[in-house]
Amino acid sequence: MEWRLYSRDRVAMFWTMAFPVILLLGFGTIFRDSGGPKLSVVRVLAAAPGPQDAALDLALADLQLKVQALPRAEAEARWARGETAAQLEAEGGGYRLRLNSYLMAQAGATAGLVNQAWLVAQARLSGAPEPRRIPIQVESPGRKRSANYAAFLLPGLLGLNLVSMGLFSVGMVNVSYREKGKFRRLAVTPLPKWIFLLGQVLHRLTVTVIQAAILLLVGYLVFGIANQGSFLELLLVMALGTGCFMAFGFALSGFAETSEGYAAISNLVFFPLMMLSGVYFTLDSAPAWLQRLVAGMPLAPFLKALRAVFNDGAGLAGHGLGLAIVAAWGLAAFFLAVKRFRWA
Amino acid sequence: MTESALRLRGLRKTFPKVVAVAGVDLDVARGEVFGLLGPNGAGKTTTLEVIEGLTEADSGEIEILGLTWAHNGREIRSRIGVQLQSTSLFNKITPREALDLYGSYYPRRRSTEELLALVQLEEKADAHHITLSGGQQQRLALAMALVNDPELVFLDEPTTGLDPQARRGLWDVVRRMKAEGRTVVLTTHYMDEAEALCDRLAIMDHGKVIATGTPASLIADLALPSIVELTFEGNAPDPAAFEAALGLRVEPRMDLWEIPTPDPKTLLPRLLEAAEAAAVPFQQVHIRRATLEDVFLHRTGRSLRE
B117-141: per-residue pLDDT in tens? Predict the structure, then answer.
């Protein structure tokens, strides 16, 4: 009977609701923008271009660098607006490279390339033999030939999607339904709270998997990104992560009376989690204690495992501890959710 | 099998600003239809909700079918049926689905088809809940209360918002429930409903039970079980002078006078004579027996319908 209870619960409760496919489409479009950052430099046009300029421009063209040639006035205007990462201009008999201090990550890389071009240009001008370059091979840690930035981004986005779905849509919907008294009638039935919550988690899990599948499909068709690892393992990791963060959502929803209250609480939890998760930047330079703390939280190990399977095709074997952490957090959150859950 | 369906002793429930239930004792025997009659705000719904386990009482004892919430919560829930004052369901769920779903929560259940037929919702069985009229939603809520074939059913204001035909229909359902051996506890502010359906009832006001008994006994307890009514066109005039002349109390209502009396037959000729003499411009004379409304009025000085 218990089985019938929650399978019924999941199906009947939600299948009649229109589910936003827009969410999925929206995801697809966001994806389109992540072609990966291209490095670019603004080249201020010389008043009277000479052989030096020609050589430099030629060398620059060889590189993976987007050169935007602009007259001085326009370039300065762009600079003032903060849109330029690096600007190359003539000074004295040579050149000067100005870097935008706010965009140092990009600018630094650009500077390296520009100087490389300059060295090559100088070599050519002085008639020296063409300098040879050390060949570059780009590969991801798992030694599979991963395509591009988009491929790297996808699991991160996926993970983030799961987290935000869990915290925001699941928890919020729960609180708002409770506010509207939709659960009240259930309070007088013998349905146990934990089965009810489990039914919701399973339902959301199913929906999320479908969402993710569509995301992967879009990624594959449009960008050619393919899952490098086994689909089963990918599914496993995703299910585990989803379950964990859904439980978080439910647990949090037990602390809020109103939708506004829940919005406040969930944001409070979400942003630190996101910042520390390693999605946007690595924490290599963070103090050791912080790194250990983050490793113990569920998001970082989850993303690690996800990337490992998706980008590197690795097995889940090495991630046992990480996955156990995720599972443990999930169970704790579920327990808290059941304890704090009120029908009305 | 215990004889008592429901036992309440000293039930109290207060909210921050108001004492909703101020010490209530009740006994409901198995197989009877018991009513809680009172105006809005009397505490009927709160009392029911505490009994049903939706709200926790501040103090007092509750015994349902010989069981208590502390020890037998799950069992109680399996054996009772509840129709809340208003049932809020998901917008797009259909009656059939709702009955299937809620039925699945119980070890024993009645068939969806049977329930739909009982409340006459067969035609709307697959309509979205939000498209149902108020009355249809009420009927669904009633069917849901019966889905687990319960021994004890709680109905909170079951006919509020129903048109007269639907009301009669619901009264029939309640009578059937009684015939099937179920115990029914219902709340209402309609006196005719209480009289028509209830074997016994408790009259509530301001969180307290002010009288209990069968409808007949409650009325009989009134010293003056009959009322002679004089109806006027327009507003009823001030009866003070007439009262003095007649020597009997006259209650003015909007467009009529009520004269309570133990013996209307003897009073009538005297009344008509006095009225003629005083040139009282009444249009109609009407003798009726006292109703629960009069009982309530007598006890509280207020009308049930306030």
Answer: 999 899 999 888 888 988 899 999 9
